[in-house]
Design brief:
Elements: E1 10-14, E2 29-32, H1 43-62, E3 64-69, E4 76-82, H2 88-105, E5 112-115, E6 119-124, E7 137-142, H3 149-168, E8 174-182, E9 185-193, H4 199-210, H5 213-217, E10 222-227, E11 230-238
Parallel strand pairs: 1-7
Antiparallel strand pairs: 2-5, 3-4, 4-6, 5-6, 7-10, 8-9, 9-11, 10-11
Family: Belongs to the cysteine-rich repeat secretory protein family.
Subcellular location: Secreted
InterPro entries: CRR_secretory_protein, GNK2, GNK2_sf
Length: 242
């Protein structure tokens, strides 16, 4: 059973699915643990403080960090992941903000996760490295619908599946790509996994969320499925022929 107190998927409407974060933008979503809590000034809180400090120093140079602090029953595990195309500076800014904001929103929860456009931060009193997290998940989509949803859905799935194969073969487990649709438009896609996953498990995670396209984003001009272990983004963009 999930240690998070939100439903397994939270659908969020966005009028413009921006791929690049706006400075000062708040989190896209967050989940807090239940019923496991800790008390102020406890050993668990001390370990959690040490862990989050470690993550915002370790993560920016490579875009990913994971670790644990303490010993059972006060051990805490955590990771931070920045989007694969953000700068070291933007990564650090996001992870620092995420570390602060999640403690405000989930002050005494032993487990929590928070997502921004540029990063995610997750921690728990239970070890989770290497495991697909499909429980903590949310959707976002563009409110505009394409004129021919069927063919568009197939093109979207085709692009994202291609990117999933590419991401599997990269150290960052990250890939982006474009597909021309005609009529002066193109389809942009991005996929990424947390780097605690193996390549095969990353591919399995991405295949799973790509399979949720009909539930999330049927015919929508843009959409995201974001879980605790992997995510994708796609959106139509206008372009000018050279």
């Amino acid at each position: 059973m999930s240690f998070f107190n939100f439903a397994s998927s939270l659908c969020l409407i966005t009028f413009s699915l921006l791929l690049h974060a706006v400075s000062g933008a708040g989190p896209n979503s967050h989940f807090c643990s239940t019923p496991d809590n800790f008390t102020a000034n406890s050993r668990y809180e001390s370990n959690l403080n040490k862990l989050t400090s470690y993550l915002y120093y370790q993560s920016p140079p490579t875009g990913f960090g994971k670790g644990s602090r303490g010993h059972y029953p006060d051990q805490t595990y955590g990771l931070a992941l920045c989007r694969g195309d953000v700068s070291t500076s933007d990564c650090k800014t996001c992870v620092v903000e995420a570390s602060s904001e999640i403690r405000k929103r989930c002050p005494y929860n032993k487990a929590a996760i928070i997502w921004y456009d540029n990063c995610l931060l997750k921690y728990s009193n239970n070890g989770f490295f290497g495991q697909i997290d499909n429980i903590n998940k949310f959707y976002m989509w563009n409110v505009h619908v394409v004129s021919e949803p069927g063919p568009f859905n197939e093109k979207t799935k085709e692009l994202l599946s291609q990117l999933a194969n590419e991401a599997r073969a990269t150290p960052k487990l990250f890939a982006t790509g474009e597909l021309e649709l005609g009529n002066s438009t193109k389809l942009y896609g991005l996929v990424q996994c947390t780097q605690d996953l193996s390549r095969d498990v990353c591919k399995k995670c991405l295949d799973g969320i790509i399979g949720e396209l009909p539930s999330c984003c049927d015919g929508k001009q843009g959409g995201r499925v974001v879980s605790g272990s992997c995510n994708f983004i796609y959106e139509i963009y206008p372009f000018v022929n050279a």
